[in-house]
C-alpha cells in the first residue's frame, strides 16, 4: 500500500462516482478510427489525461538506467506499429509495482511493472510484452470496448470499487454494496476478449520481426507467466492457478503459448539475453518496503509502522489502493480514509461510502475496543445480495496523528468472525523492526562447473519454494538444467 495512495485516501474513503463524468459521457477517442491508423490528437489528449493516475495506481514511476533501458526498448518496438513515425512519440514507463502487469493506452502511453520485467529472460521478451500492448492500441481494442461498455451501461454498477477490489470484479454483492463508477483510467484497461488477445499477440510478433527480434520470445514469455501463475497458486495454497493473471485484463497466458509459437513459425532473430540481464541486475524484486511487504501470512509496512497477519489458509495481495486478504471463507482489505477524530463516526462513514448513493448500509451498532494498545472500533451489517445474506464488517484503528486505517470484509452471513484473528493481529512496529525490513533484489550470477539447480536455488532469499522460484524466474521447465558459463537470475536480500 503506497504512500501516495495513503495520501489519496485521506480525502475519500473510497473512490466516488463523480470522477468519471466526462469520460463516460463523451465520445470515446479512437472508437471510429481504423485499426493501424496514426495516433489522433484526441487519443493523445486522453492518454495524457490519465497518465499520472496510472502511475499513482501502480506504485509510481521508476527512474534511472533500468527505467531508461525499458523506455528505449519500448519506444523501438512501439514505432514498428505505425502509430507514430518517431520513437519519441511514445511515453514508456517502468512502474514500481510487485504485480506482473503491462498495458498501453491510446495516445502512445506504454507501461510495464518491474516485477514483470524481472520475470523476463531477454530483451526480445521485453519487446514482445510491450509490442503486445501496443498492438491493442493499434487495433483500437480499448476504444471499442469502452464504447461497448458505455452503450451497455456496464460501468455504473459492475465495476464498483468494492466489487473490483474487495469482491473480485463481478460479484452481485459488490454491485449492491456500491454504485460508484469506474474511474476514467479503468475505462482504458477493460478486459480484452480472447480474439483481441490473439490479435495483439499476432501484432506483437509482427513488430518483433520488423525490429529484428526472435519472434518466439512472445511464446517463451507467455510460458513464464503461466509458470508464475501456477507457482503463486501453489505457494498461496490455492487450487486456481490462473489468478493472479498477467494484468487482470488479460486471459490466462497458458492458453496462448501454442498459438504464439505457431504465429512465430520458423523465423529467428536476436534475443540480447546478456544485455538484458546486465541491465536489470540489482532491480528490486517483489515488494518495495516503502509500499509494505508480504512475508508468508504477515504484512509489514516499515514506513507506516504497522503489521498484521492473515488467517491460516488465506493469501494476501499488496496493491496500491489496499492490501487484500483472500480465501474461500471471505475477503477483506486494509485501506485508510479521512480521519474524523471519532472512530464511531469513521466506521459509519465507511459503511456509507460502501453503500453509495442508492444503497444504504449501516451497522446494527459500533463497538469500541483496544487491539494491542491501539484504539479501535468495529461494526457489522447484514446485506442481501439478491442470492444470499452476507455480512459486511468494518474494523478501524486510530494510530494517532490523524491517521486511521480500517479493514473492510465480506463473509457469508453468520461468519463475520472468520477474520477475528486478522483484526486482532494488527500491531505497531518498533523502530528496530521497521529498520530491519530491506528489499530483495535481482542478482545476476554465472553458473560454475559444479553448479546445479540445487546449488543456485539455495542462494535464493526465501525459506520456501527455492527451487521452484529459481526455475520460474529463469524460465526453466522441470526437465531443464543450468548450463556452466551461462548467467542466471537469483533473488538476494539487500544489505
Automatic annotation (TrEMBL):
Gene3D superfamilies: Metalloproteases ('zincins'), catalytic domain
InterPro entries tied to this protein: Mito/Outer_Membr_Metalloprot (IPR051156), Peptidase_M48 (IPR001915)
Annotated GO MF terms: metal ion binding; metalloendopeptidase activity
GO biological process: proteolysis involved in protein catabolic process
Keywords tagged on the record: Hydrolase, Metal-binding, Metalloprotease, Protease, Signal, Zinc
Pfam families: Peptidase_M48 (PF01435)
Position of the signal peptide: 1-26
Domain Peptidase M48, residue spans: 66-261
Cofactor(s) demanded: Zn(2+)
Coiled coil: none
GO cellular component, one term: membrane
Name used for this protein in its record: M48 family metalloprotease
Amino acid at each position: 500500500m503506497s504512500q501516495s495512495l495513503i495520501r489519496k485516501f485521506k480525502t475519500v474513503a473510497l473512490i466516488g462516482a463523480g470522477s468519471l463524468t466526462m469520460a463516460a459521457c463523451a465520445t470515446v477517442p479512437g472508437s471510429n478510427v481504423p485499426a493501424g491508423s496514426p495516433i489522433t490528437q484526441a487519443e493523445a489528449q486522453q492518454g495524457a489525461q490519465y497518465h499520472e493516475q496510472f502511475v499513482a495506481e501502480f506504485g509510481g514511476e521508476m527512474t534511472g538506467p533500468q527505467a531508461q533501458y525499458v523506455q528505449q526498448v519500448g519506444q523501438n518496438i512501439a514505432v514498428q506499429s505505425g502509430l507514430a513515425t518517431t520513437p519519441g512519440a511514445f511515453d514508456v514507463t517502468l512502474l514500481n509495482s510487485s504485480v506482473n502487469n503491462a498495458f498501453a493506452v491510446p495516445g502512445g502511453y506504454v507501461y510495464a511493472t518491474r516485477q514483470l520485467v524481472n520475470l523476463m529472460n531477454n530483451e526480445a521478451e521485453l519487446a514482445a510484452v510491450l509490442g503486445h500492448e501496443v498492438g491493442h492500441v493499434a487495433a483500437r481494442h480499448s476504444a471499442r470496448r469502452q464504447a461497448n461498455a458505455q452503450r451497455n451501461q456496464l460501468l455504473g454498477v459492475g465495476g464498483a470499487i468494492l466489487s473490483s477490489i474487495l469482491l473480485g470484479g463481478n460479484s452481485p454483492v459488490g454491485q449492491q454494496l456500491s454504485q460508484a463508477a469506474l474511474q476514467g483510467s479503468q475505462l482504458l484497461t477493460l478486459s480484452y476478449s480472447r480474439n483481441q488477445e490473439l490479435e495483439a499477440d499476432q501484432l506483437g510478433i509482427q513488430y518483433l520481426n520488423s525490429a529484428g527480434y526472435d519472434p518466439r520470445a512472445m511464446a517463451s514469455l507467455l510460458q513464464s507467466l503461466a509458470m508464475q501463475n501456477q507457482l503463486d497458486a501453489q505457494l498461496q495454497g490455492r487450487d486456481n492457478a490462473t489468478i493472479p493473471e498477467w494484468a487482470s485484463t488479460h486471459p490466462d497466458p497458458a492458453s496462448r503459448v501454442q498459438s504464439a509459437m505457431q504465429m512465430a513459425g520458423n523465423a529467428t532473430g536476436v534475443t540480447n539475453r546478456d544485455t538484458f540481464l546486465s541491465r536489470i541486475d540489482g532491480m528490486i524484486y517483489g515488494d518495495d518496503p516503502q509500499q509494505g511487504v508480504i512475508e508468508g501470512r504477515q504484512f509489514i509496512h516499515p514506513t507506516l509502522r504497522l503489521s498484521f497477519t492473515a488467517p491460516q489458509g488465506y493469501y494476501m495481495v499488496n496493491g496500491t489502493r489496499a492490501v487484500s486478504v483472500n480465501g474461500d471463507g471471505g475477503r477483506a482489505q486494509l485501506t485508510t480514509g479521512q480521519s474524523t477524530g471519532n472512530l464511531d463516526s469513521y466506521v459509519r462513514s465507511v459503511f456509507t461510502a460502501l453503500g453509495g448513493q442508492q444503497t444504504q448500509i449501516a451497522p446494527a451498532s459500533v463497538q469500541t475496543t483496544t487491539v494491542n494498545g491501539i484504539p479501535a472500533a468495529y461494526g457489522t451489517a447484514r446485506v442481501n445480495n439478491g442470492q444470499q445474506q452476507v455480512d459486511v464488517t468494518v474494523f478501524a484503528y486510530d494510530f494517532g496523528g490523524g491517521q486511521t486505517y480500517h479493514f473492510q470484509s465480506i463473509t457469508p452471513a453468520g461468519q463475520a468472525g472468520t477474520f477475528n484473528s486478522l483484526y486482532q493481529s494488527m500491531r505497531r512496529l518498533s523502530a528496530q523492526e521497521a529498520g530491519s525490513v530491506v528489499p530483495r533484489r535481482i542478482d545476476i550470477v554465472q553458473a560454475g562447473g559444479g553448479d546445479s539447480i540445487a546449488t543456485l536455488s539455495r542462494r535464493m532469499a526465501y525459506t520456501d519454494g527455492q527451487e521452484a522460484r529459481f526455475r520460474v524466474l529463469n524460465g526453466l521447465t522441470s526437465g531443464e538444467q543450468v548450463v556452466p558459463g551461462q548467467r542466471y537470475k537469483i533473488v538476494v536480500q539487500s544489505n
